[in-house]
């Protein structure tokens, strides 16, 4: 860093507070820059990041799709739904093997999907497809499955009064059904029992076709959705071949024919299933919430969480029918087929069993060994799947790598030309002071480069063309704070201060102006960033960043350097080319001392003198008369 | 450059003063006429929405050896007879084809056909498909952002200047800039794209930034206005505008230089695109912004302040003093010299020479 510029110049012995302050500022700046660049070099040397910031799609080439989530029934979309949608699309895209896809929300309902390179049609379809929630009865469970993470129990809602809540009006009996009384058993015992049943038996079923496996010789027509006859030979082969350790099978697969059996994995990869035909879909569910598990008296069981499902009228009827059948199977001791799978995007997110009777009220809760986060995730997933959400393509852009590079090259060229013009103009206007401007712009450039590259490494920031435009525009705004400052210093010189005093005094005033105007500028960038969609964001980001960098540079570099320069002979004595020559600034004409002003056109008389002169002339005229 | 510097000195000392605030009626008239024109243009000529606001499909074929638009017209006519393509050559050797809404499958197959016809690889074709609601989405977000920004900035300016009139004047100047820029767009028929919207939004920040710098000087000059009886509020505000004139000019030149560089590069080397659209809006907006911060904002602020009781009384008192001849600001030729309020004020011990050898 320039700690002692123009050290050849004659310096005063006295080190004033201004100078030591300036040196301190420069030291701060130097350490800040060193820190940033040291971080960056660490990243580059360990090959974790490149020396250039990551480029957005419009510069690097690729396909950018902006989707808008819309409900077909005009219901409200929560931010959590959009987060779920992003999560689901991300899983799908990751599973398809596209590297470095960027999927993010924009605004309230928009999702931006940026796929680098030239993704194939299948990947694009994955992105555009909306998620589907299905309830299918479990027919067969198998390895890989050491212990299920969410062995679950479905019970009726353990409200103090077992009557269904009013909004779930069904034609069904509003009085406690027999099953509800079955739910009167102690809850914790059930859960343990369930964990035991769910899979310990089925594990043994996997190596060979299970006892319930189809008999190829007798292709029977299934009588109900839980009928083992849904498991055809082809389906069973598919099930056998299914590898649930492959992440591709865990993150969104085609949902299969709703009227046929279906083989798929658990979302954690801990089990695989054969399931019957679809019995309920997302359309049958009103909502899902997570909360602490309660016992029959409505008291919270500490440390336990459950997911409550609430079905709509059509759904509760269907669900009652399903649970009735599954409860029947449970009573026969069938520990596989008493479960139903909840599938989101063709993958089982939960497979609870029914062990407390049919659920007729349209209210159900899934309990088990959930943590609060797990319960919340499951509730969010079900709720999201229940939304009649469609993703409309708002815009889809294909940018070839060559076009992006051309735009980047031209953008940088424009920036270079702009910078050069600014440099020429400031040299012309401010002479040697122009060098301070150029130095400050260079420091600001270094700062911006390091910050953007670091952000690109740490936060995955991608520089877009609009961002480049923001950087170029910012050259002008950055240079303006120097102009405000220099003009202030000149004003102070004109008022008759020495250069050192003018720099300090001018700085105090300019700092206020710069802070106020930068605050307005930053506010604009912030509001744009938070609300905007598409390219506006990239632009707002760089604009806001550069505003901050501008403040840092003008406080920690431009002012200290000028304060030090003010003590050199060249500037301090006002060399003709220093840009701060008091004679050129007309100081001689301003302040004459003893409170008198002497402008060429103003009268050099004080008010008292003028009054005296006036009185005298009045006396003169009287004398004449 | 000595001339500009001397000019700056004369402006600063008040030796040379442009009566911008004094002739505010004239500038208000000019602005009012321009604003009316802009509104009329917006109503009757209308803005020319780009494809992002119309919805549709756009292809860009780069580096075409034979930039003949007829080829593209033929290809589209063969594949999609009902479509009426807009084909243009941009940036010398790039062909741009714009169509209405297409199915996804059609988008990709037409891209391949176009690439074949011009003898380039189909992977080199850039395409974009814009749904009909995308543009609305961008503009509704922009309007939302605008409103929130205006509310916030009004609060910030009111707090900073301790004068809501300054915030109001700044916002009017801002509206003036935006309206004028939109008017220019309607007049010239430039396409309005999301990038232009970015440009418009940046004008917000810039216009206010510029105004804040001038107002800061006005505030400084008029902080103690009521404690003296030499100059009126309007005169001191006018002095502030004159004193920041050199800065305003330098600032606009410096801000416009990079923008013109983008505009130049954008128009001559790239044809259309994000860079050109942003810089065009910025160029117009910044130029108008400089005009409004000099000629409109302060004058308006003075007009607003003029209704304040304190200021009215003060102005009357100052003028009465001058009438009586008890004021020393009248030049021999009868004009008023508005200069620094406290030249050579006592600077306390700081002005005294320091003793050597003491820290």
Provide keyphrases for this structure.
heterodimer, A: 625 residues, alpha+beta, Multidrug efflux transporter AcrB transmembrane fold, Alpha-Beta Plaits, 4 domains, five-stranded mixed sheet, 17 strands, 48% helix, B: 359 residues, 2 domains, four-stranded antiparallel sheet, two-stranded parallel ribbon, 12 helices, 6 strands, 64% helix, elongated
What's the arrangement of secondary structure elements?
The complex is a heterodimer of chains A (625) and B (359).
Chain A lengths: L16 H29 L11 H4 L1 E10 L7 H17 L6 E5 L3 E7 L4 H8 L4 E10 L9 E5 L21 H5 L4 H19 L27 H9 L20 E4 L6 E4 L4 E2 L3 E10 L5 E12 L1 H19 L8 E5 L2 E4 L2 E2 L8 E6 L3 H15 L2 E11 L1 H30 L1 H27 L6 H30 L4 H33 L3 H31 L3 H4 L18 E3 L2 E2 L9 H18 L1
Parallel strand pairs in A: 5-13
Antiparallel strand pairs in A: 1-3, 1-15, 2-3, 4-7, 4-8, 4-11, 5-14, 6-7, 9-10, 10-14, 11-12, 16-17
Helix pairs in contact in A: 1-11, 1-14, 3-9, 10-11, 10-12, 11-12, 11-14, 12-13, 12-14, 13-14
Chain B lengths: L1 H12 L10 H22 L2 E2 L1 H4 L1 E6 L7 H11 L6 E5 L3 E6 L4 H15 L7 E5 L3 H28 L2 H25 L2 E2 L1 H29 L10 H11 L1 H26 L3 H32 L3 H16 L35
Parallel strand pairs in B: 1-6
Antiparallel strand pairs in B: 2-4, 2-5, 3-4
Helix pairs in contact in B: 2-7, 2-11, 4-5, 6-7, 6-8, 7-8, 7-11, 8-9, 8-11, 9-11, 10-11
Q: What's the gist of this structure?
A:
Chain A is α+β, with helices and mostly antiparallel strands. Chain A is 48% helix and 16% strand. Chain A folds into 4 domains: 17-55 and 400-572, Multidrug efflux transporter AcrB transmembrane domain (Multidrug efflux transporter AcrB transmembrane fold, Up-down Bundle); 57-129 and 393-398, Alpha-Beta Plaits (2-Layer Sandwich); 133-392, no CATH class; 590-624.
């Amino acid at each position: 860093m320039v700690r002692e510029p123009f050290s050849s110049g004659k310096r005063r012995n006295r080190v004033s507070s201004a100078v030591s302050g300036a040196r301190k500022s420069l030291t701060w700046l130097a350490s800040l820059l060193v820190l940033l660049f040291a971080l960056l070099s660490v990243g580059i040397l360990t090959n974790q990041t490149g020396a250039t910031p990551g480029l957005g799609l419009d510069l690097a080439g690729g396909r950018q799709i902006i989707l808008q989530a819309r409900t077909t029934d005009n219901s409200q979309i929560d931010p959590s739904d959009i987060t779920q949608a992003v999560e689901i699309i991300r899983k799908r895209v990751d599973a398809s093997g596209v590297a470095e896809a960027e999927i993010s929300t924009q605004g309230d309902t928009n999702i931006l999907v940026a796929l680098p390179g030239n993704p194939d049609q299948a990947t694009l379809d994955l992105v555009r497809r909306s998620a589907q929630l299905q309830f299918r009865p479990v027919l067969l469970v198998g390895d890989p499955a050491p212990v299920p993470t969410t062995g679950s129990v479905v019970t009726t809602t353990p409200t103090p009064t077992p009557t269904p809540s009013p909004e779930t009006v069904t034609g069904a009996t509003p009085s406690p059904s027999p099953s509800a009384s079955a739910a009167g058993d102690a809850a914790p015992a059930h859960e343990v029992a369930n964990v035991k049943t769910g899979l310990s038996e089925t594990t043994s079923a996997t190596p060979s076709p299970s006892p319930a496996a189809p008999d190829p010789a007798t292709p029977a027509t299934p009588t109900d959705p839980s009928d083992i006859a849904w498991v055809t030979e082809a389906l069973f082969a598919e099930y056998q071949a299914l590898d649930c350790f492959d992440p591709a099978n865990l993150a969104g697969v085609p949902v299969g024919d709703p009227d046929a059996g279906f083989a798929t994995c658990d979302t954690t990869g801990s089990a695989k299933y054969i399931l019957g035909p679809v019995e309920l879909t997302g359309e049958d569910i009103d909502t899902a919430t997570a909360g602490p598990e309660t016992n029959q008296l409505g008291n919270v069981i500490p440390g336990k969480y459950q997911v409550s499902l609430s079905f709509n009228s059509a759904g509760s009827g269907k669900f009652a029918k399903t649970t009735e059948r599954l409860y029947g199977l449970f009573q026969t001791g069938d520990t596989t087929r008493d479960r139903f799978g909840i599938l989101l995007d063709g993958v089982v997110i939960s497979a609870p069993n029914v062990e407390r009777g049919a659920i007729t009220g349209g209210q159900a809760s899934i309990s088990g060994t959930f943590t609060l986060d797990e319960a919340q995730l499951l509730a969010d997933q079900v709720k999201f799947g229940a939304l009649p959400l469609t993703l409309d393509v708002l815009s889809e852009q294909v940018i070839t790598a060559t076009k992006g590079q051309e735009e980047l090259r031209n953008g940088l060229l424009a920036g270079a030309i702009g910078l050069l013009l600014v440099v020429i103009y400031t040299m012309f206007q401010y002479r040697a002071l122009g060098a301070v401007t150029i130095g400050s712009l260079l420091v600001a450039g270094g700062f911006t480069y390091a910050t953007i590259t670091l952000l690109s490494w740490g936060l995955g920031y991608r520089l877009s063309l609009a961002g480049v435009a923001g950087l170029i525009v910012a050259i002008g705004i950055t240079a303006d704070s120097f102009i405000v400052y220099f003009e202030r210093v000149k004003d102070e010189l004109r008022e008759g201060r020495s250069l050192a005093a003018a720099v300090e005094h001018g700085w105090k005033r300019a700092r206020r102006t710069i802070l106020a105007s930068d605050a307005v500028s930053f506010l604009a960038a912030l509001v744009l960033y938070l609300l905007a969609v598409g390219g506006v964001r990239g632009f707002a980001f760089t604009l806001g960043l550069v505003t901050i960098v501008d403040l840092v540079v003008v406080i920690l570099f431009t002012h200290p350097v000028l304060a030090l320069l003010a003590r050199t002979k060249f500037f301090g004595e006002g060399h003709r080319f220093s840009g701060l020559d008091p004679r050129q600034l007309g100081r001689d004409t301003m302040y004459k001392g003893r409170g008198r002003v002497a402008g060429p056109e103003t009268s050099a008389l004080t008010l008292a003198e003028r009054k005296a002169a006036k009185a005298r002339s009045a006396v003169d005229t009287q004398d004449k008369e | 450059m000595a001339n500009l510097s001397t000019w700056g000195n004369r402006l600063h000392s008040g030796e040379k003063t442009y009566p911008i605030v004094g002739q505010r009626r004239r500038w208000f008239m000019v602005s009012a006429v321009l604003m009316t024109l802009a509104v009329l243009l917006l109503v009757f000529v209308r803005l020319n929405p780009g494809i992002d606001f119309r919805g549709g499909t756009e292809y860009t074929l780069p580096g075409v050896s034979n930039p003949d638009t007829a080829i593209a017209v033929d290809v589209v006519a063969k594949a999609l007879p009902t479509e009426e393509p807009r084909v243009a050559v941009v940036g010398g050797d790039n062909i741009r084809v714009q169509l209405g809404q297409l199915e996804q499958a059609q988008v990709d197959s037409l891209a391949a056909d176009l690439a074949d016809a011009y003898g380039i690889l189909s992977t080199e074709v850039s395409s974009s498909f814009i749904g009909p609601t995308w543009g609305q989405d961008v503009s509704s977000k922009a309007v939302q952002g605008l409103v929130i920004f205006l509310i916030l900035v009004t609060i910030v300016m009111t707090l900073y200047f301790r004068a809501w009139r300054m915030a109001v004047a700044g916002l009017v100047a801002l509206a003036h800039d935006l309206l004028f820029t939109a008017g220019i767009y309607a007049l010239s028929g430039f396409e309005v794209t999301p990038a232009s919207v970015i440009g418009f939004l940046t004008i917000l920040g810039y216009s206010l930034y510029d105004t804040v710098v001038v107002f800061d000087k006005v505030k400084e000059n008029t902080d103690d206005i009521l404690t003296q009886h030499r100059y009126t509020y309007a005169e001191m505000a006018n002095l502030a505008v004159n004193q920041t004139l050199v800065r305003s000019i330098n600032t606009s030149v410096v801000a416009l230089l990079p923008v013109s560089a983008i505009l130049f590069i954008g128009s001559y080397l790239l044809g259309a695109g994000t860079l050109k659209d942003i810089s065009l809006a910025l160029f117009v907006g910044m130029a108008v912004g400089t005009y409004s911060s000099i000629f409109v904002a302060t004058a308006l602020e003075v007009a607003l302040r003029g209704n304040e009781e304190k200021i009215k009384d003060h102005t009357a008192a100052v003028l009465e003093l001058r009438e009586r001849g008890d004021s020393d600001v009248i030049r021999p030729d009868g004009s008023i010299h508005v200069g620094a309020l406290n030249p050579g004020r006592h600077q306390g011990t700081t002005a005294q020479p320091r003793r050597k050898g003491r820290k």
